[in-house]
Amino acid sequence: xxxxxxPAAPHACCGGHSHSKPKPHxxxxxxxxxxxxxxxxxxxxPGVRSAVPASCPVCGMALEPEFVTADAGPNHELExxxxxFWGAAVLTIPVxxxxxARHFGHNADFMSDVFVMRLQxxxxxxxxxxxxxxxxxxxWQSIRTGNLNMFTLxxxxxxxxWLYSMVATLFPAIFPAGFQGEHGLAVYFESAAVIITLALLxxxxxxxxxxxxxxxxxxxxxxxxxxxxxxxxxxESEIKLEDIVAGNYLRVRxxxxxxVDGVIVDGASHLDESMLTGEAMPVAKAASDTVTGGTxxxxxxxxxxxxxxxxxxxxSRIVQLVSEAQxxxxxxQRLADKFSGWFVPAVVTVAIISFIYWSLFGPSPAMGYxxxxxxxVLIIAxxxxxxxxxxxxxxxxxxxxxxxxxxxxxxxxLEMLEKADVLVIDKTGTLTTGKPAVTAxxxxxxxxxxxxxxxxxxxEQGSEHPIxxxxxxxxxxxxxxxxKVTEFTAIPGRGVCGDWEDGEVMLGNAGLxxxxxxxxxxxxATELQAGGATVVYLAADGKPVGxxxxxxxxxxxxxxxxRNLKMQNLxxxxxxxxxxxxxxxxxxxxxxxxxxxxxxxxDKARVVKDLQKQGRLVAMAGDGINDAPALAQADIGIxxxxxxxxxxxxxxxxxxxxxxxxxxRARNLSKATMRNIRQNLFFAFVYNAAGVxxxxxxxxxxxxxxxxxxxAAAAMSLSSLSVxxxxxxLRRAKI
Length: 735
Prior knowledge:
Elements: E1 40-41, E2 49-50, E3 64-65, H1 76-103, H2 113-131, H3 133-145, H4 150-170, E4 180-181, E5 184-185, H5 189-221, E6 227-232, E7 235-240, E8 249-252, E9 261-267, E10 269-272, H6 274-277, E11 283-285, E12 290-291, E13 296-299, E14 302-308, H7 314-326, H8 333-361, H9 366-380, H10 384-403, E15 406-408, H11 411-419, E16 422-425, H12 427-431, E17 432-443, H13 449-460, H14 466-477, E18 486-491, E19 495-500, E20 503-508, H15 519-530, E21 534-540, E22 543-554, H16 558-567, E23 571-575, H17 580-590, E24 594-596, H18 601-613, E25 618-622, H19 628-633, E26 636-640, H20 645-650, E27 653-655, H21 661-696, H22 700-703, H23 709-728
Parallel strand pairs: 16-23, 16-25, 23-24, 25-26, 26-27
Antiparallel strand pairs: 1-2, 1-3, 4-5, 6-7, 6-8, 8-14, 9-12, 9-14, 10-11, 10-13, 15-27, 17-22, 18-19, 19-20, 20-21, 21-22
Helix pairs in contact: 1-2, 1-5, 2-4, 2-5, 3-4, 4-5, 4-9, 5-7, 5-10, 5-23, 8-9, 8-10, 9-21, 9-23, 10-21, 10-23, 11-21, 13-14, 21-23
């Protein structure tokens, strides 16, 4: 097995550069003709892409595969760093023990100073040159490209300490007497070895944390079965999931998961679609119904036509949304980037100044103290905590959201949602179910509701119109027998008619039954229409049978969700293409006072833009194709997971369960994540602001304290660990 690093979960520790503006020569672009399946990208630096595993030329992180797979296998980068860490630890312990014994005067008689120096050199050199080789590779790359980062500081600090110690051990005569101490020349093999070991430990801890947050994505992918049963010429055979192509006919048996997205062509069943809807109740499916990969077939067997396979399936797109979001950066990261842009050069300057100052004015051996301070400055200033502060919180927060049905497509949306002060909501499919249902059945004199509904369903059973489907579904729910209707005729824009035992029957709008006296139910019809329902009239042989009201049902938790959102000082506005009357009726029931009705898709985007011109930060929630322009225009687009593809693509946040309480969860997630990021950034800034002066020796004139490079390395690793642990608290956040 090669010892070179392989792509996997990357380092989040990224310091001295601006991610938002990588240097033009930095990105590695995929050559023309290379399959994107083989591409690797940097999770922190936009535009950096490679056709082969590599490290990012900007920040030094290991590039990761662009597309997530369920069978990710072992994390090679984690294993690579873990192997080097344990090798370094085994060799560093004796070096550290010998040096500590030397400092406390416990050298054995046979262990001369020269022997101790050479013993340390023998153990420390493999640590620096082998275990620490990734740091030197990335450090040199950062200098060559001009993108200074944390690896620059590690490489310079440990490299200077090791190189000086090597020369002092092999050629001690070239050093002046001022370099001599009680035990001869001071060497820093143990410092270089311990720093490399601690830095590797930090990498291992960080990579393990990233690996845990990525496990949720892989679990989602595992919802799809590994194999499927393909039907060809009436013969069924088992094939691998990756061998399915669009157009295949696939058989699904009871107790199996659906492999890909498609449409049922034969058979029927009940599916558990809680993965998509959050509802535990099985959903009835029959011919012409769509099925989604990853959902569970409880009972019945059916054959379906595969339409979306591979990365095009709903499950794969959900996974990719989470993956892309975890690689995105919040605008608050720009603060850390700006700081890092001047931080590394400033640290190098401070290290040089401290070396010169302590070499001239420090205690004997002055040169040794100067080197000690310079190395300590370079190590303690390693901006690991600063680089980890934002991406670790964002990554963990996004993973927490995915577990709660809130898919965050980009970190900017996660940050901005906390600040939003206006929420614009579409009606159909967002506040309502988006599926018309029968809400009232009013029979005329001489008839009853059973005859009315069953006769209407008999007329409509061959129609695909949403109102027709609602009437048929209502009759089916009540298990009503359908009378025989012949000579079915559809009249566009008006309704349907046919022949029944009592003569000709007609079902449709008022225009279709013009001339039939519906005065007995007219008042009720007017009342239902005022409430936003669509009323259809049924007449038989020129006499009124009754009316049926069909309306889009309000989602059960809509009113409560709106009330809770208002309590968070959000101004809630309804924006819909529906008629004013229907819009007002729904708005009244859910508690929305501002309504824009009869709005076309481009007008929705204009309304959002007008609000933005007023200085408002606008979040838009919708689910349809007509909502896509407004979702894209809004500062934060929120799509219902049950909505159209274009809506999902235009939004920054997707509510997997399709209910409005998801907006509340998303806002709470945004607040928790941003609070966590601010905590991390505060600690990182304070740590660096205090650590560098201490390492440079500012306390020596007062307390005669100079910070050892070992202590500096420990402080650097502990600061990174504290940021990681604080970010991981988001996994238990209540949203």
